């Protein structure tokens, strides 16, 4: 049972779009900011990528 969440993640209503780049095939695609917490799978090559490490800086 966990009633306590990390403070600061309560209000998660406003999502922004970000761009990530697959380290394996260099395909770029857009995700929503909440997907940064997830592990993504590249649609092009199937590589499993950690979104946080693959964000394309503007
Ligand atoms: Zn890829």
Quick synopsis:
By secondary structure, the protein is mostly beta strands. It has no helices and four strands.
Summary keywords:
28% strand, 58 residues, two-stranded antiparallel ribbon, binds zinc ion
How much helix is in the residues? under 10%
Bin the strand percentage.
Answer: 25-35%
The hetero compounds bound to this protein are:
zinc ion
Regions with little confidence, pLDDT below 50 for 5+ residues: none
Mean pLDDT, to the nearest integer, reads 86
Tell how many strands the DSSP assignment holds.
Answer: 4
What is the radius of gyration? Answer: 14 Å
Strand order of the largest sheet: 1-2
Secondary-structure-derived class: mainly beta
What coarse outline follows from CA principal-axis ratios? elongated
Report the biggest beta sheet as strand number plus sense, adding barrel if it closes. 2 strands, antiparallel
Number of contiguous helices: 0
Order of helices and strands: EEEE
Q: First CA to last CA: what distance? A: 40 Å
How does this model look, in words?
With 58 residues, the protein is mainly beta. The chain has a domain at 17-54. It is built from no helices and four strands. The strands form two sheets. A two-stranded antiparallel ribbon has the order 1-2. A two-stranded antiparallel sheet has the order 3-4. The relative contact order is 0.24. The mean pLDDT is 86. The structure holds zinc ion. Residues 22, 24-25, 27, 42, 44-45, 47 line the site of zinc ion.
